[in-house]
Amino acid sequence: MAITGATGLIGAALGAALRERGDEAVGVSRSPGPAMIGWDPKQGFTDADALSGFDAVVNLAGESIAGRWTAAKKRRILQSRIDATSAVVRAIGSARERPRVLINASAVGLYGDRGAELLNERSEPGRASEFLVGVTQAWEDAARAVEQLPGAEVRLGLARFGVVLDANGGALGKMLGPFRMGVGGKIGSGAQWMAWVHVRDVVAALLFLIDRNDCSGAYNVVAPHPVDNAAFTAALGRVLDRPTFMRVPKLGVKMMFGEMGQALLLDSQRALPHRLLAAGFEFEFAELELALTDLLG
């Protein structure tokens, strides 16, 4: 298996799981070395036939969405995803022996700010004016080009990730400091929904999509029981045994983080893993408090 973004939170966990079950996991990196393939996401792979012979490719590459969204940052967020995905598709197209499947990252940000609406994979994208809606649409469109390649067919899976929970990084890792100091609390009204998922279930879902030849198209990789921010805050406080009385006002979020704060902390996505469940996937961590206890207890 070839993995772009192999050193990131999801990529590193996926690579470890593949090796644990006896598969070869080869990363894709700007600095090729042992178990690494060389590439530049803008220019493509060092070897045009680099992906030949791999059973599967998982594309997780892209600029982090964390940080203030300046105009330059937003360009990098968008372009890095399109460039990396297009490079992967070109390499698959030129491979003498094509992979049978491409699993490409996406995000539930596709649905935009939707309040308490229940969202599944058939739900319409959010407003075109929302930055992450446009990014995820362009990202998925770039990946769908693999289905138009002439010759041997390549199955495509689009993994629409929610908020991936891991104690060592990502959103949860950033929250732990304030909460452990007893100054954590809900954000804004706390009514915004959060489609969360334990990192171990993310890895299991990716392996499921790789292995199942009957699985193609978009899948929400989120736990089956999303929660609102107030419930998430209370659960995290209970697991850490810390108070959660401090509230971050909506205006404060916008002043501190700008557009990024609105999209990542205040927007609401009550997304459900409808297609994963219908395909028979079983979540190890369906309930938030169970997931947090496993990660932090």
State the major sheet.
8 strands, mixed
The CATH first-level class comes to: Alpha Beta
Task: Count structural domains.
Answer: 1
Helix fraction? 25-40%
Q: From the 3D structure, determine the CATH topology.
A: Rossmann fold
Strands side by side in the biggest sheet: 4-3-2-1-5-6-8-12
Q: How many distinct beta strands? A: 14
Query: How big is the Rg?
Result: 19 Å
CA-CA gap between termini = 33 Å
Order of helices and strands: EHEEEEHEEHEEHEEHEEHHEHH
Mean pLDDT: 96
Strand content: 15-25%
For the record, the CATH architecture stands as: 3-Layer(aba) Sandwich
As residue ranges, the low-confidence spans are: none
Computed structural class: alpha/beta
Overall 3D geometry? globular
- Full CATH superfamily name: NAD(P)-binding Rossmann-like Domain
- The DSSP helix count reads 9
